[in-house]
Amino acid sequence: MHITFDDAFCSVAGALPTLRRLRIPATVFVCSGYAEDGRPLRVPELIEEVDAAPEELATMGWDELGEIAENGVEIGSHTVTHPHLPSLAQWEVERELVDSRERIEDRLGRPCRFVAYPYGEESDHIRAAARAAGYAAGFAMSSDLRRADPFAIPRVGIWRGDHGLRAAAKIALQQASKRPLWHAGTAR
C-alpha cells in the first residue's frame, strides 16, 4: 500500500505520524503556486467551501513541506495552479508541469519524481508532456486497471465523505482486480 494526498492540505500532517508508525509510504502532491504562501486551495469547485472554512483548505507552505520531506514523505507535483489540464493549450500544460517540478526541486533541494494530475484528468498528450517534463511517473484517477502506463497509474479515490464501509468497499473492489495500482519498481 502507498498513500497519496493531493493538494498538500495542512490537515495531512496529522495523518503522517500514524503512517510512519505503520510503515506505510506516503506521497504528498503540492501545487507549487499555493506553497508560496500556504493559502487555501481556491479553485472553482471549492469556492463555497473556502469561503465557509478557509482553514480547512489551507495548504502547506515550503517550510512544512520541507519538514515532512525530511521525515520520509515524498513530495510530488500537482502542477502550479491546479488547472483542468485537458482544457489548456499544449504550451500551458507544459508550463504547469515543468514550472511546478522545477520549483519543488529548487525549494526542497530534492528530486520531484512524480506528478498527480489535478482532478485525475489525463490524456495521451498530457502523459507525453509529463514524461517530457522529467517526471518518472504520473498518477491519475483512471478506472482502466488493465493499462500498464507509468504515466497513468490509477488510484483509489477516498474522499472526505468516504467513511468506514464506503472506503473499505472502494479498496476491496481494487483488490478484487488482483492487480496492484502501483509497484515501486515501475517508477524508477
CATH class equals Alpha Beta
Let me know the number of strands: 6
**Average pLDDT figure:** 85
CATH architecture term:
Alpha-Beta Barrel
Summarize the structure.
This protein is α/β, with parallel strands linked by helices and 188 residues long.
Write the layout of secondary structure elements.
Elements: E1 3-6, H1 16-21, E2 26-30, H2 32-35, H3 47-52, H4 62-70, E3 74-77, H5 90-108, E4 114-116, H6 124-132, E5 137-140, E6 153-154, H7 164-176
Parallel strand pairs: 1-2, 2-3, 4-5, 5-6
Helix pairs in contact: 5-6
Explain what you see.
The chain has one domain (3-186): TIM Barrel. Helix content is 35%, strand content 12%. The radius of gyration is 16 Å and the shape is globular. It has seven helices and six strands; from the N terminus they run βαβαααβαβαββα. The model is unreliable at 166-170 and 178-188 (pLDDT under 50). With 188 residues, it is of the alpha/beta class. The strands form two sheets. Strands 1-2-3 form a three-stranded parallel beta sheet. The chain has a three-stranded parallel beta sheet with strand order 4-5-6, with helices on one face.
